[in-house]
C-alpha cells in the first residue's frame, strides 16, 4: 500500500503531496455527502456536504461575491481527503492544520483560479461559525453562549439521501463555476 488514498473515482491521491490534476469535484461532492458533521455526535445525520451547501447559500444571501460563494461550497473540501477533526483537537494539531491549509489552498487555486484574500477567509469563517451555532443548538441541543446569529437562509435539518446531497452539491458547483468563469 502506497502513501495515497483511493478516491471515489479511483484516483490515487496523496493528501500530503497533492496533485491538482487528481482533485475532482465528483470526489469532493461524493465524500462530503457521506461524511457526518461533528464526528457523528449529532442527534441525526447531517453531512459536511449539506453544511457546505448551506454555507454557500448563506454567502449568496449576504450578497457576497461569486468567488466567496463558491469558496464557501469548497471550504471543507480538504476533509474529503483528510477526514474531519473536531475543533478542540485540531487546535492542538499544528502539522495537521498546516497540511489541511495547504491542501485547501491547492483546491481553491484549482477551482477559483487563485487563493483567498484574508478578507474572504474572514467572511467564510463568519458564515461557518454562524452555521455551527445552529448545528450545536439543533443537532446537539447545546445552548450557545453568544447571541443567535441572523441567517439569510432557512435551515432544514431533515435528513436527505446521500445521492441527493451529492447531486445538489455538484449542480450548485457547476452553476457557480459557470457564473464565475463568465465574469472573468
Report the span from N to C terminus: 42 Å
Q: What percent of residues adopt helix (DSSP H or I)? A: 55-70%
Q: How do the SSEs run, as a string of H and E? A: EEHHHHHHHH
Mind telling me the C-alpha Rg? 16 Å
Shape: globular
Number of helices: 8
Biggest sheet, strands in spatial order?
1-2
Question: What are the segments in which pLDDT stays under 50 over at least 5 consecutive residues?
Answer: none
Largest sheet: 2 strands, antiparallel
Structural class based on helices, strands and sheet pairing: mainly alpha
Say how many strands there are: 2
Query: Into which percentage range does the β-strand content fall?
Result: under 5%
Mean pLDDT: 94
In short:
The protein is built from eight helices and two strands, in the order ββαααααααα. It is an all-alpha fold and 184 residues long. It has a two-stranded antiparallel sheet.
Word description of this protein:
The protein has helices at residues 25-34, 48-61, 66-74, 79-82, 87-90, 94-112, 118-140, 162-182, and strands spanning 5-6, 12-13. Strand 1 and strand 2 (12-13) form a beta hairpin. The chain is an all-alpha fold and 184 residues long. It starts with a strand and ends with a helix. Helix content is 57%, strand content 2%. The mean pLDDT is 94.
Amino acid at each position: 500500500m502506497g502513501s495515497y488514498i483511493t478516491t471515489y473515482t479511483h484516483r490515487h491521491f496523496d493528501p500530503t503531496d497533492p496533485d491538482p490534476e487528481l482533485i475532482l469535484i465528483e470526489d469532493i461532492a461524493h465524500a462530503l455527502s457521506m461524511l457526518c458533521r461533528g464526528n457523528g455526535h449529532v442527534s441525526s445525520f447531517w453531512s459536511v456536504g449539506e453544511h457546505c451547501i448551506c454555507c454557500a447559500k448563506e454567502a449568496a444571501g449576504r450578497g457576497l461575491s461569486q468567488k466567496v460563494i463558491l469558496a464557501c461550497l469548497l471550504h471543507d473540501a480538504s476533509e474529503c481527503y483528510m477526514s474531519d477533526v473536531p475543533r478542540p483537537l485540531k487546535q492542538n494539531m499544528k502539522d495537521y492544520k498546516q497540511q489541511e491549509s495547504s491542501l485547501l489552498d491547492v483546491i481553491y487555486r484549482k477551482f477559483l483560479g487563485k487563493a483567498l484574500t484574508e478578507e474572504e477567509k474572514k467572511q467564510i469563517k463568519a458564515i461557518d461559525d454562524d452555521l455551527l451555532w445552529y448545528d450545536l443548538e439543533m443537532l446537539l441541543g447545546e445552548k450557545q453562549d453568544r447571541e443567535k446569529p441572523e441567517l439569510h437562509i432557512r435551515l432544514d435539518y431533515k435528513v436527505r439521501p446521500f445521492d441527493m446531497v451529492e447531486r445538489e452539491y455538484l449542480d450548485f458547483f457547476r452553476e457557480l463555476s459557470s457564473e464565475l468563469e463568465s465574469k472573468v
